[in-house]
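The aim of this short unit is practical: by the end, you should be able to scan a pair of folded records and say something sensible about each. We start with the first protein, listed as its amino acid sequence and then its structure tokens.
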Amino acid sequence: MGRSAPQQNEYENCGQAVGAMAETEISLVQSHRSARMGPFGRRMEFISLTRDRGIGANSYLLDLDGACVILDAGMHPREEGSASLPEFSRVGERQLDAIFVSHTHLDHIGSLPLAMGRFPHAPVYMTEATAELGAAMLHNSVNVMSAKREELGILDYPYFTHRELDVLERVLERRALERPF
């Protein structure tokens, strides 16, 4: 069944918009830091806060016309000390509107308490399952960092304590997976 001329034009326009968004996303992901007009005429900036481009301390800043959010706050599992952390200093003087945690792998949630300390007014959003599993992961991280403090002499470890985690857990915004904001 064919499309009418108006339907075909709408379909083609939608396809062009999706293509433009994909090109924008690809170029933003490929560059370490990129600012440009997004597909809807808004200024968009995507900044990787990870120290290296590989898998590790995953954390990203998305600034869409001044609305700033961080996606994930990980810790690199194969690095030690500050080399294992995202570079939150790249956020600069921006006012952070929120932190979103996608899932509970250490490389996505491991430095969340540090991000929360650095950006205390930013609400932190995650699913209930992520909050529950994330709490266990972070408490385990305290134990691992405490052991590494003794074994490797990393005096900065642990970056946070069990008591601090207990307090932070109470302020997390738990959201249903498909619940709109």
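Turning to the second protein, read its sequence before its tokens, just as you did above.
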Amino acid sequence: MIRFGNRKSGRLACAAVLSVGMILLQACATIPTFSPRVMEDLDETFDVEAWWKAPNSMVGRKVELGGQLVQGVVKNGETFLVVLQLPIVDQLIYESFETHKPMKQYGIHYRATIDPKWLAAGNHIMVVGATLQTKTVLVSGTQQTIPFVNAECLHVWKSAGTAPPSLPLDTAAKFERLEQATYCTSGY
């Protein structure tokens, strides 16, 4: 047992230890990518596999998706992105755990402009928004029909040329080192 002279100094020492412990706990905690307000009404039961099969039957669902940017275009004050879907684990984006499954693409429509430095192919992205009807887009010179999300908020990591982590171990530091930005519609 540790003794600290008198009761008052013992209480002060305990309070100091508890304060340091709380600070350390906060430092280790995962910081949310988006504010709780953005995450309100998120469809926690959204099945991305079912969305790929019948995207037009799942219009208007508020979802959170992650991925790697394939291409991005700013046109008439709006941003259109094509993203290779990757899973989100603990608010970070990972390579597919099922490497035998082909990864699929989806589109993001954001009703504002994004600085072009964030639109490089290979950057990692998270989006929260409502699912839309499929649209036909030109991807790497080929027309494709893909499902779309109307973005409320986007978070982009400037990670072009950096492979995403393949396992959720010790990877938060990798993403923290990358330059990143969040874009949200004016309501957020």
